[in-house]
Amino acid sequence: MKPTLFILAAGMGSRYGGLKQLDGLGPNGETIMDYSVFDALRAGFGKIVFVIRKDFEEDFRRVVISKYENKVPCEVCFQSIDKVPAGFQVPQERKKPWGTNHALLMGKDIIKEPFAVINADDFYGKESFQVLADFLNSVQDKKDEYCMIGYRVINTLSENGSVNRGICQTDKDGYLTDVVERVGIEEKGGKIVFPDEHDHDVELDVNAPVSMNMWGFTPEYFEYSEVAFEQFLKEHGTEPKSEIYIPTVVNDLIKAGKVTCRVLDTPSKWFGVTYADDREQVVMKINELVRKGEYPNKLF
After folding, report:
1. Per-residue DSSP letters for 185-236?
2. Domain of 122: which CATH number?
3. Which residue from 237, 249, 248 is spatially nearest to 94, judged by alpha carbons?
4. How do residues 102-124 score in pLDDT, each as one tens digit?
5. Structural domain includes residue 105
6. What is the domain extent for residue 113?
7. Fewer CB atoms near the end CB (10 Å): N or C, the chain?
8. How many domains in the chain?
9. How many whole angstroms from its chain centre is CA 103?
């Protein structure tokens, strides 16, 4: 059974208003998500599942899914604030859903095979999808063996300001042991640094692996996520802005000895629109990849 690509797109409407962030960045108006779907298909993924907000389903199907539906099976699920387990209530003051691992949980009834999880608005690169597909094909009949694509920090920087990244700690066999969030990472004088608590620069290895929210799971991860979400709601459910994130759940499962998560290296360069000025750079980078023949001029 071919693996599924699960795209987290529920933040779209709230962050950008409608579907404005489906910004045409490629030569024929292609979005970043179009490149992810294209890369996934050539790596051997067999289905695309999107998690979105119900209130823009019609627009999303018209603008996005219509491009892919004749090329690959596509399904949609919905994230909303009120999707909580029986016995829990949503605080009146809460305005946003419950974070990335809650969004992932929405795919539980659709996805029954090994699957990858990505953000809708990040450019991950074709090599990363191939590495991920190969891993997911290798765990078809297994459980509790997950992976995360570890980008080299030098390949994730912005030319327009500092970035925050989760630096991955691994054991000697390449398994994830911890993710440490570092803020203010940038290149200075040919070195990659971040400020410590005294505002002194600490140097990072240029190849230090970082998480860009590109994961590989087998289906029992949904069951773990249900348990984790209930525990999260017991502890933080009354907080109006608390969220449950994928790295937190994975980290807790690793610490409890329930799962392993292999950090897989990729040579791909990640890019996205972190700053307004990044848009022009992204357009240039995509055009350069097209010029080199890594992507066709028109994807779909």
Report:
1. EEEETTEEEEE-TTS-EEEE-TT-EEEEEEEEE-TTHHHHHHHHHHHHHHHH
2. 3.90.550.10
3. 237
4. 999 999 999 999 999 999 989 99
5. yes
6. 4-150+211-291
7. N
8. 1
9. 11
